[in-house]
Specification:
GO molecular function, one term: FMN binding
Shape: globular
Protein name: (S)-2-hydroxy-acid oxidase
Bound molecules: ligand FNR
Number of domains: 1
CATH superfamily: Aldolase class I
InterPro entries: Aldolase_TIM (IPR013785), Alpha-hydoxy_acid_DH_FMN (IPR012133), FMN-dep_DH (IPR000262), FMN_HAD (IPR037396), FMN_hydac_DH_AS (IPR008259)
CATH topology: TIM Barrel
Strand content: 5-15%
CATH architecture: Alpha-Beta Barrel
Largest sheet: 8 strands, parallel
Cofactor: FMN
Number of strands: 12
Family: Belongs to the FMN-dependent alpha-hydroxy acid dehydrogenase family.
CATH class: Alpha Beta
Radius of gyration: 19 Å
Length: about 350
């Protein structure tokens, strides 16, 4: 089978994963309106090509929080990579290191953080945090990963409760005990509902916890899940260093806007004061270009990484990333952008399709 676009990896994963695992990965909340719009919203944006600009040298490199990455696509946090490949997160981390991009490791990793880092010691890694009800566990986790060389803390703000995922409910989906949340020492019994109801996540988390987090870590803090100008303003007034515009891949509150549609509101509120990133529905190189043109500094991939992992572990993730890198490079060539700094809003127009 030839893999010529990200959708080919998706088809492979669908055919090869157990049905309930596939539906867990692919699923969105309720009617999946937001999950699907994350993708379809890009198709309504048109590009304005520019020519005769000497495109013999094109540089895709950029930086996030001061660290260089080879192109503006990184890996979003997703839990339980061992559902897709035996050594799960270790393979993902190796692929990210080989590609010189950032891997955001989930709180709910199915490999120990030490093993993930040992497999890819030189990779750029950020940690995603779900604040645990037991704050001592949260503090220990943060201090552990900081000592392991994690460079930023990505606080997921959109999960005070778990989204209502109908297929998981129908399948009574539960995580194998082996994949329990190794790093936070909250044992999950086989068939337990405790993770699906995210009972260990502290739903009392609020803006005042940013100061608490700052008191226990030197890592810059990035808020993942901001979708409105009001919360973007609050993020800035609480001195965080970045915002990741995300709707959790449409897995939390259904019918919130597609992330590419929410991006402009957040970017306009932020006014360049901190870095703004985006995830959700990135499937082609032109999607990446459009997100950057509208103000994202970098985008993150969720499900496509899991499809690559299912196909061939580290090699599969690399193939996914390489394919997207080539597509992105080509889209820069066609729009006359020789470097990331030349990507601007003039490249896009919105059609009324
Ligand atoms: C996620 N996501 C997620 N987010 C997070 O902050 N912590 C997590 O542990 C997880 N786990 C997770 C598992 C699975 C299977 C999926 C599909 C997603 C959300 C993820 O970080 C990201 O926001 C979306 O996946 C981005 O959308 P795409 O690229 O999947 O369309």
């Amino acid at each position: 089978m030839a893999f010529v676009c990200l959708a080919d990896f998706q088809a492979f994963a669908k055919d090869n994963l157990p049905k309930s695992t596939w539906e867990f990965i692919e699923g969105g909340a309720d009617e999946c309106i937001t999950r699907d719009e994350n993708i379809s919203a890009y198709k309504k944006i048109r590009l304005r090509p520019r020519f005769l600009r000497d495109m013999s040298v094109v540089d895709t490199k950029t930086t996030i929080q001061g660290s260089e990455i080879s192109f503006p696509v990184c890996i979003a946090p997703t839990g339980f990579h061992c559902l897709c490949w035996p050594d799960g997160e270790q393979s993902t981390a190796k692929a990210a290191e080989a590609m010189n991009i950032c891997y955001v490791t989930s709180t709910y990793s199915s490999c120990f953080y030490d093993d993930i880092v040992a497999g890819a010691p030189n990779g750029l890694r950020w940690i995603q945090l779900y604040v645990q009800r037991d704050r001592k566990i949260t503090k220990k986790l943060i201090q552990k990963v900081e000592s392991l060389g994690y460079k930023a803390l990505v606080l997921t703000v959109d999960t005070p409760a778990l989204g209502n995922r109908l297929q998981d409910n129908r399948n009574r989906f539960s995580f194998p005990a082996l994949l329990s949340t190794k790093n936070i020492h909250v044992p999950i019994e086989e068939n337990s509902e405790s993770l699906l109801s995210v009972s260990s996540i502290d739903s009392s988390t609020s803006w005042k916890d940013i100061a608490w987090l700052k008191s226990i870590t030197q890592m810059p803090i990035i808020l993942k899940g901001i979708l409105t100008r009001e919360d973007a303003e609050l993020a800035i007034s609480h001195n965080v260093q970045g915002i990741l515009v995300s709707n959790h891949g449409g897995r939390q509150l259904d019918t919130v806007p597609a992330t590419i549609d929410a991006l402009t509101e957040v970017v306009n509120a932020v006014q360049g004061r901190i870095e703004v990133y985006l995830d959700g529905g990135i499937r082609t190189g032109t999607d990446v270009l459009k997100a950057l043109a509208l103000g994202a500094r970098c985008v993150f991939l969720g499900r496509p990484i899991l499809w690559g992992l299912t196909y061939k572990g580290e090699e599969g993730v690399r193939q996914v990333l390489n394919l997207l890198k080539k597509e992105f490079y080509r889209s820069m060539v066609f729009t006359g952008c020789r470097s990331i700094s030349e990507i601007s809003q003039d490249l896009v127009q919105f059609s009324k399709l």
